[in-house]
Amino acid sequence: MLLEILALPVEDKIFYAVLVFSWTVYIWEAYLAYRQRKIYSTTTHVPTELGKIMDSETFEKSRLYQLDKSNFGFWSGLYSEAEGTLILLLGGIPFLWKVSGILTARFGFGPEYEISQSLVFLMLATLFSALTGLPWSLYSTFVIEEKHGFNQQVILVTIYADYIAPLFDKFTPLPDGELKSEIESMSKSIYFPLTKIYVVEGSKRSSHSNAYFYGFFKNKRIVLFDTLLEDYSPLNKSGEKEPGTGEENEAAGNESKPKPKNKKQGCSNPEVLAVLGHELGHWKLGHTVKNIVISQMNSFLCFFLFAVLIGRKELFMAFGFHDTQPTLIGLMIIFQFIFSPYNELLSFCLTVLSRRFEFQADAFARNMGRSSELYSALIKLNKDNLGFPVADWLFSMWHYSHPPLLERLRALTGPKQD
């Protein structure tokens, strides 16, 4: 068997090596997901550290949400891997390239018009990917997310809400007040060049919470999702009654007032400041710049290797291109298939680095005197986003760019470290 493999042409060795590595990665990922799925299935009680601050109902909701996502991820991942394998085995890439050539030829563009053919190829590949991925996307959004109360969409505007709406989100300046003054004061204390603070209506698309900053040089801006702010989140107002309404008058004789449908969401002002202290820690400690430098170095290395490999005919032959060597196809083969072992290793290293950065940013907020506020904010955000606080160590080590909640809480309450 080994002799037969060694006797194969170089292009066949490349092809089968790509397939074997792809399935090896899939099996590894499936094994990790299985380990985490066991955690979701068997951890039915609130951890001791969270016993006084996380109720059983929220914990159970989080557990079921993550269990549903994990089960969905197994089937969607299996389908994706099987689809990719069939495309390679059946020659789907050279077939689509040939179809692209036929279409461009009908408009008078021959084989020498490689750019035109490449554009048609990209359009057809994107269309195919969108059509095959749409059922999975719809199920994720309108079954899983809807079931657990995160989806705020209607079906006809899914694409608009996910990809176009963020470009036109309504950014409202944070009104003058205590929160704005505190944010400006905190930014000034660490020389963060803050120019504006916005609140964005993220609740129109999802009830997940977030905050970030952007801008170049001396022109930085902070953006807060309305779902992050306890006083702004529309979800906190969804069950409130307007004074003087008939419904309120009818209930006037009852001893108890109607309760909102949803529990209160978002963070208090001190907790928001602690979250921003964490985010500003990333800036102060140079994490953003370091990530940019790593990204640029990686891009330089990848394109250097691409220049070295693009002329290797056996790479094209391995994927069914015996007579032509289109540049676009070369990009796909090299970056998607040949670089896949390197990409997996790089992804793991960046995950480890990201977790280190997160611990450092937490420590930065702690050194600003906001340890207890960040502690409670992390728990609230975890509850609002239905994050599960318990993780399998191997799964989290490989996948989590942010440390699991319990690890972060323990670091915040442990001895201070430089």
Automatic annotation (TrEMBL):
Q: Report the GO terms under cellular component.
A: endoplasmic reticulum membrane
Q: Which GO terms describe its biological process?
A: CAAX-box protein processing
Q: What is its EC number?
A: 3.4.24.84
Q: What does the record say about its membrane topology?
A: Multi-pass membrane protein
The subcellular localization recorded is:
Endoplasmic reticulum membrane
- Segments of this protein annotated with the region Disordered: 236-266
* Chain segments annotated as transmembrane: 14-34, 86-107, 119-139, 292-311, 331-353
Give residues annotated as binding Zn(2+): H278, H282, E358
Q: Where does the CAAX prenyl protease 1 N-terminal domain lie?
A: 36-153
Which InterPro entries does UniProt cross-reference here? CAXX_Prtase_1, Peptidase_M48, Peptidase_M48_N
Peptidase M48 domain mapped to chain residues: 174-414
A GO molecular function annotation here is: metal ion binding
Q: Which CDD domains match?
A: M48A_Zmpste24p_like
Copy out the cofactor comment. Binds 1 zinc ion per subunit.
The reaction(s) annotated as catalysed by this protein in its Swiss-Prot or TrEMBL entry are:
Hydrolyzes the peptide bond -P2-(S-farnesyl or geranylgeranyl)C-P1'-P2'-P3'-COOH where P1' and P2' are amino acids with aliphatic side chains and P3' is any C-terminal residue
Active site as annotated = E279, D362
Family, according to the entry, reads as follows: Belongs to the peptidase M48A family.
So what does this one do? Proteolytically removes the C-terminal three residues of farnesylated proteins.
Protein name per UniProt? CAAX prenyl protease
